[in-house]
UniProtKB/TrEMBL annotation:
Pfam family, one: DUF5691
The organism's place on the tree of life at top rank: Bacteria
Name of the protein this chain belongs to: Uncharacterized protein
Classification via InterPro entries: DUF5691
Species: Rugamonas rubra
Length: 556
């Protein structure tokens, strides 16, 4: 039910703070009927009348002669999926709206016509929903969005493009029409449309897209340069380096920072080579041998060759060339100034450089850095570099380095909270590598409580970004740990409530037999405190099971 702003404000603030005038908040046709309602009943009569009015339907005003022609109908999702979506929009498990939209996009289903208006309104209020809604509008949805300027801007609809061809077929412009639209948005669109156009151009032809940006760069306002430059991350390559190097001298700090980040991310860039040279002058790796070294290795549990020792000299100063490369630009909380410079230098060098240069495995490199006095700065920089590497070159070497860092243990893992630092980049890994990391976390959960927290955060991140459903194996492991955690606590706290809410969104719901087992019996003394959480978990899983099945139903 969509309430008028006046009525919605009264419901939130109360009649004492937001009085409701006779007939206010209801459709005009109901004003006369509601005017006679007593003051003490007016609020709820208005809500009930508005709901009935919307559910019964009403005829809109006759269109003006200049109105656009009607758009023909087209196939959408099944009626069962439509009913599930309507339930979500009416407040039944609203947290699953993103999951419904993501599943519809995966199965190439369009939004049902009955939900177009409420979803367009919702997307105008909640920016994170806009891309998902726009992708599912279909021909009629895009035509409808073009009739309302605020909808058209929200979903990026070109009014001329969609209204002029309303009588055609298909879900949008094809071939040359699409190219014309991108070119028009780049030349004449607002800033958001120009950014979308540049990203689209980069995917089609990175070189031509960068040349188009270079051509207009000198005339672009500062806020446009700040928004457009990050779009080069799509299709980033060494041919972009010369332009990015010039952007390092931009007047705006944010523009320089974006250029520094892109160059640090770009494999083989001159910025990365400059940082390698600076670190080579600061590092001395001493190979250790002899009885003392072997005895020390045995005492530390290392039965192989003794690890070398890294001697580090902090940078003496941060000159203009280093500042131009982004060194020392950001302050590092809890760290000395020179240690912060060291961190920034390490962040610009791919981790594989150290294993190749020192002829050590990733685990051995980490052990060498841990043993160093400035280990926090060295390891934090290494972690940032590993995250950048999997974003741009997710090859086997980058993935091995990432997995080593994110699933490790000891000082590097617990004190630095490396999993939390690398969590945003974890989806860059192949699904099998992600699950390998999460299985390792769950194995560590008994001795490292935060490992379970990181596993849940990964699962929630996947559910929010792409409605990812966990595999049966990971689902069972997460649920079993949650059940053991519940059995150890007398009553749920804020953290456990959040954990159960995440489990409800991410657990595999294809076969719910595993989710019904291993719960405490009714004789457990703490069951009354936990029962509402468990009931909500099971109710959500059943609803998700129904939602997934609804897309597979055939209306015929």
């Amino acid at each position: 039910m969509m309430l008028a702003p006046t009525l919605h404000k009264t419901l939130l603030a109360g009649l004492s703070r937001a009085p409701l005038a006779p007939g206010a908040g209801a459709p005009t046709a109901l004003t006369g009927l509601l005017a006679a309602v007593p003051d003490e009943l007016r609020l709820w009569h208005t809500v009930a009348a508005s709901d009935l009015w919307q559910r019964a339907g009403y005829l809109p005003p006759a269109p003006a002669p200049s109105a656009q022609p009607a758009c023909p109908s087209e196939p959408t999702c099944s009626r069962a999926a439509e009913q599930v979506l309507l339930s979500i929009l009416h407040g039944i498990h609203p947290e699953l709206l993103g999951s419904w939209l993501a599943q519809a996009q995966t199965l190439n289903r369009q939004l049902p016509h009955s939900c177009l208006v409420p979803l367009l309104d919702l997307a105008s209020q909640k920016p994170p929903l806009r891309a998902a809604v726009a992708a599912l509008l279909g021909r009629r949805g895009r035509w409808l969005a073009a009739q309302q300027p605020r909808w058209a801007e929200v979903v990026g609809v070109d009014v001329d493009e969609d209204t002029d061809s309303a009588g055609g077929s298909g879900s949008g412009p094809a071939g040359g029409q699409a190219n014309d639209t991108v070119a028009r948005h780049w030349q004449l669109g607002n800033l958001a449309q120009r950014c979308d156009a540049l990203r689209t151009m980069r995917l089609a032809d990175p070189e031509a897209a960068r040349l188009a940006l270079e051509q207009d760069w000198a005339q672009e306002p500062a806020e446009h340069r700040m928004a457009l430059l990050p779009c080069l991350a799509a299709g980033l390559n060494l041919r972009d380096e010369a332009f990015l190097e010039r952007a390092l001298d931009d007047k705006r700090k944010d523009v320089r920072g974006t250029a520094q980040h892109l160059l640090a991310t770009l494999p083989g860039s001159q910025l990365s080579e400059r940082c390698k040279s600076r670190l080579a002058a600061l590092f001395t790796l001493e190979r250790r041998s002899g009885l003392r070294a072997r005895l020390g290795a045995m005492l530390s549990g290392n039965t192989g060759e003794p690890l070398p020792q890294l001697l580090v000299q902090l940078p003496a100063a941060c000159d203009k060339d280093m500042q131009r490369d982004g060194i020392g630009v950001l302050g590092r909380a809890g760290m000395g100034e020179k240690a912060g410079w060291l961190l920034d230098l390490m962040a610009c060098v791919p981790p594989a450089h150290w294993s190749d240069t020192w002829q050590l495995t990733p685990d051995q490199v980490v052990d060498v850095l841990v043993a160093q006095e400035f280990n926090m700065a060295l390891l934090t920089g290494l972690v940032h570099a590993a995250g950048r590497a999997v974003q741009t070159t997710p090859d086997a070497t980058a993935i091995d380095w990432f997995v080593t860092l994110v699933s490790g243990n000891g000082l590097a893992w617990s004190k630095l909270q490396i999993p939390a630092l690398l969590l945003p980049e974890l989806p860059c890994l192949p699904a099998a590598a992600q699950e390998r990391v999460v299985r390792r976390w769950l194995e560590q959960a008994a001795s490292q409580p935060l490992a379970y927290v990181h596993a849940l955060a990964w699962a929630e991140q996947g559910a929010d970004q792409c409605a990812k459903v966990l595999s049966p194996e990971i689902s069972r492991a997460l649920l079993r740990h949650g059940q053991r955690q519940m059995a150890a606590d007398e009553q749920p706290d804020y953290s456990s409530r959040g954990d159960f809410a995440i489990l409800a969104k991410v657990l595999d719901c294809a076969d719910l037999a595993y989710a019904r087992s291993n719960w405490p019996g009714d004789d457990w003394p703490h069951w009354p405190q936990w029962r509402p959480l468990v009931d909500h978990l099971m109710d959500t899983l059943h609803f998700r099971h129904t939602m997934h099945a609804s897309f597979l139903e055939n209306d015929a």
